[in-house]
Structure formats: C-alpha cells, structure tokens
Automatic annotation (TrEMBL):
Pfam families: NAD_binding_4 (PF07993), Sterile (PF03015). It comes from the Eukaryota. One of its GO terms (biological process) is long-chain fatty-acyl-CoA metabolic process. This is Fatty acyl-CoA reductase. Its EC number is 1.2.1.84. It is a multi-pass membrane protein. Residues 138-407 form the Thioester reductase (TE) domain. GO terms for molecular function: alcohol-forming long-chain fatty acyl-CoA reductase activity; alcohol-forming very long-chain fatty acyl-CoA reductase activity. InterPro entries: FAR (IPR026055), FAR_C (IPR033640), FAR_NAD-bd (IPR013120), NAD(P)-bd_dom_sf (IPR036291). SUPFAM superfamilies: NAD(P)-binding Rossmann-fold domains. It catalyses: a long-chain fatty acyl-CoA + 2 NADPH + 2 H(+) = a long-chain primary fatty alcohol + 2 NADP(+) + CoA.
Amino acid sequence: MNFSAESPLENTDITREKISAWADSHGAKQVDVYGKPSNSHLQELERIRNLSKELQNNLNDLENSVYIPEEEKQAMNPTAPILDYSEHHEFVSANQLDDYYAKEDQADAREEEQRRLTKGKAAKTAIQRFYKDQCVFLTGGTGFLGKVLIEKLLRSCGDLDTIYVLVRPKKGKDPHSRLHDMLDEFLFHRAHEENPKGIHKVVPVVGDMEEPGLGISNEDRKMITSRVTIIINSAATVKFDEKLSIATGINVKGTKSVLQLAKECKHLKALTHVSTAFSQTHVKHIEEKFYEPPMSVEALEAVAQLDDSVVDSILPTLLGNRPNTYCFTKAVAEEAVRKYGEGMPVAILRPSIVISTYEEPVRGWTDSVYGPTGLVVGIGTGVLRTMYMDEDKVADMVPVDLTVNAIIATTYHTANNFKENQTSDIPIYNFVSGAQAPVTWGQFIDANRRHGTSKPTTKAVWYYGLNPTKSYYMFLFYNFFLHYLPALLIDSFCALTGRKQNMLKFYSKVIKLANILFYFSTQDWRFNDDNVREMWRSLPSSDKTLFPFNMADMSWEYMAETFLLGLRVYLVKDDLSTLPEARKKWNRLYYMHQCLKVITVCVVLYIVYSLFNLISWLVLG
C-alpha cells in the first residue's frame, strides 16, 4: 500500500518529485516526518500573521488620525461635484481643484528653491553677499512690517552681523523682554529652524522715536555710529486718527532724528525710509518724485508743541485736502528726508496698503486688524453688514512679505547706485499693485466671499451678507437698520434680563474702524512705478527667486484664499481642524438668514398693507 507524504492516512502515489519536496521541507524544518507543518514553522506563520494584523491596525489608526479636507476627498472622485457653501450653492469641478493644487505645487517648488538658496546649497546671491557682515539699525522692528522684515533677514541674509532694533518700554515690559517675547512668536519658528544661531544677532537698543535723539544713550549712540552700515526706518504710527502731536513726534521728528544719526555713522552704505503711497493723496496721478509738503518740518514741530485743544480746533485747516494726520505727517516726513538726507545714500519706498503675507514665512500671517484686514474679519464673522465703498475703484494693497523683499532690494540697490554714481538725488519707489496687478474693491470682496463661505469660522455670529454702497446716504440708512437697530434690540433684551449691554458700544468701534477705510474705498489713484520695475529688472534671477516682489506675478485669487485662511488661523484664532464644525454652523446660519429675510419681507408687506387700508379708510370713509 502506498502512503502520501502529506498524510499517513491517505492512499496516493509516491513520486520522485513529492519525495524530493518532502525532503527539502523536512530539512528546512518546515514539515515533520509525516509532511505536516512543524511547530516552529507554525509559530513563525503565527508571528507573521500577528505582525500583519498589527501593521493593518496601525495603518487604520493613522488614517483615522489624519484630517483630510473634504475638498481632497471629493477630488479623489473626479465625477463628484464639490459643494461650495455659499448663498447661491455654487458648484466647482474637480478640474478646478486640480488647478488649485497645481498652483500649490508651484508655490512649494518656489519655497524649496528659496530654502536651497538660503541654506547655502547654492552660491550666495548678490543681495546676500551685500548683507554679509553688515550691521543693520532698524526702527519699527516690533510692528507688523518690522517683524516680517527681521524674520526675512534672519532666514535669507543669515550671514549679516547684527540687527539692532530700536525698542521702547511698553505696558510694564522692558525692551529686552519685549524683543525676547516677539522672537518667540509663531512667525519666527521657521527662522529658528533654518538659522537657529541667527536669533542671537537681534539686539535691542533702548530708545523712543518721540524722544530727542531717539532717546538713545551715549554709549549706544557711539556703538551705532561706529558699527552700523545699513539703516531701515520703518517706524510709524499707523492710526489714521492719531493726535497730531503724537503723529508728528513719531513720523516727522523721529525720521529727522534717524537722519541725523545716519550722518554720524562712519560706515553708512544705505538708508531706506519706508513712507506710504498715500502720502500725496492731494494729486490723482502720483509719480515717483518729491512733492511740495503741506507744511515745513520746523513749522509742524512748532504746531505740535501747542495745547491739544488748540491743535484740534485748527486741525481741519491744517490738513486741508489731506484725509488724516497719518497721510499729512508722512508727507512732511518725506520733506524731512529730502532736507536732512542730502548727500547720503538714501531712498524712499512708498508701499500702498500693507496686508498679510503672500507666501513667506507662512501663508496669510498677520497680527494687524487695520484697513482691509478688519473689513474682511467683520464680513467673515457676519458682524459687518454694510460698507461705504465704490466697488469699481481700485483697492491698492500689497502683501507684507513682498513689501519686505522690496525694502531689502531697495537698500541693496541704493548702496550700489550711490557707490557707482555718487549722486545726491534721492530715489523714490512707489511699491503698489494697481500699476501691474489691479484689483477693484468689488473683485476683492467677491473673492473673499467665495473663499469665506467655503471655509467659514466657528466664531461667526451670522451669515455673510455685506451690502456695499457708494451712496453715503444709503450707507447711513443701511448702517442704522443693519447695525445700530439690531444692536439696540439686543442691548434692550440684555437690560431686561439683567445681562451686560455692550452691542452698541461694540458697533461704535466697528464703524469707527470702517470709517478709516472710507476715504480709500470710495476713490482711487494712478501710480507710476517705473523705478520699482527698473530695480526688479536689474536683479539677477537668483535674487528674484529669493526676494520676489514683482507685483505682475501675483495672483489675487490665490491671495484672497491666503488672506482668508490667515485671518481665520492667526487673527480669529480658529484652527482649520474646526472646518467641519464651522460648515455645519454656517449652514444653520444660512437658513436662519433666509428665514429672517422672509420674515422681514412679510412684516414690511403687512405694514404697507395696513397703511394702505388706513389711508383708504381715511380717504373713502
């Protein structure tokens, strides 16, 4: 009787191949003498099976822990429509998402190229070589623009020697503590990673722009005049309704003191004064040149010494056709640069309205609520319901990171030109978007509506519903019925229920912030930016990659999404992980908004009907 090599209980034919296979398996201790799997082999199989299960469980846990935005999930199915949570429930296709992610890939490629250049894997660029071993003195370093400027210098010009930052005590904090806390902010995380030793190159200099001689000690003054080679004056009070005495002290007297300090610097290579594109709003076509100031530097300093009540009474006469103390004093500050900067390597950069970052060091970063930033926050949270603006006027805005790159390039360009030409002419650069990449207020608001309704915030109190108007009387009408009347009703309800009443006070602040923008949202200007374009063309390609500021390359659609996400995360403090929750809330607010509109229409119709009946009864008896 023949027996199987696989089992002693079954008849089978014995072949040479089966005997050979059994011998090999038995020799490898995979089967026993009867051809059954050995215990050691069974244990090995069980171990592999357990490892496989463990790996599968880990993969499942990983999949559950990673948040995949709904847009990406939908993009996996090209035929599935993507719901845009807007009032009109528009749909976008998967192809549009493909275009979006293609732009993201391009941005990542640009960032990787910048990292490559910054980390020294490539030869240093011309601008990097210029800043190598230089000592920079910076005013306004703790402000919105100054922070981004310091961060960029640390990352992309890491070989510089020192950045001296003028800092004053504030809110009980000494300058060293203020600077230390600032450098610990999220904005500087990338600089910490790419240039960890660079943070120690930022050194505070105790002083104050309003004080004589900047309030700098004799010891610090000697150190600055002997070591500093580059000065960037970006300090300014950006409060448009600031007291004239304060605005003059910071914007004019401070600038004058910086120029006097620069004259004492033994090794000065360049000084860049950051002004504003709106310093000359009395003309509609603003060129890159000096204009006649509204008042001399000395006369304004004398007026600022008067009692505030006296100054307030004559302020409208002083301002003339200038909209506010900010634009007024910045115009006089340019006159101070022309007068006291003669014979020095000085330049003026005039950026328009500075908004959040475009790409660097992170997309959409901001810590300022002024201007369009406050406008979009108010719209996105449902707080701002109307705005006085002409939607056809150009909204001239520039991202802060591109502005910083322009400042860095202007300083380099000024030093080179002064060294080569030894000219006393002070160049002016209008850094604006309207000349090369114009966007109207209507386009800007519409882009923010699209992205804001698809990526809402959990902090929203009502659905999107802005009613812009270029009629001031219609604005007053909307403002009363959409802002003050609801606020009054809410405060009345709070008073009856014993709660705190603060809505009227809150809306007064909101409208005050909005009022600041009215002058700029109802008219526009034409800017020349030939000097900026020429400076851009003169840069080598490596510097264009590392320090981009060409406005013609900017996409406002990309910027609008960047702007919204940045405000949501960095200003409203609402993490992107809350998007699913925010969309549910947004849908609820949408239906509540529609119901309220229906109720309002019904109430109005009822009132009209009642009035019609009353008139008919009075007339016809």
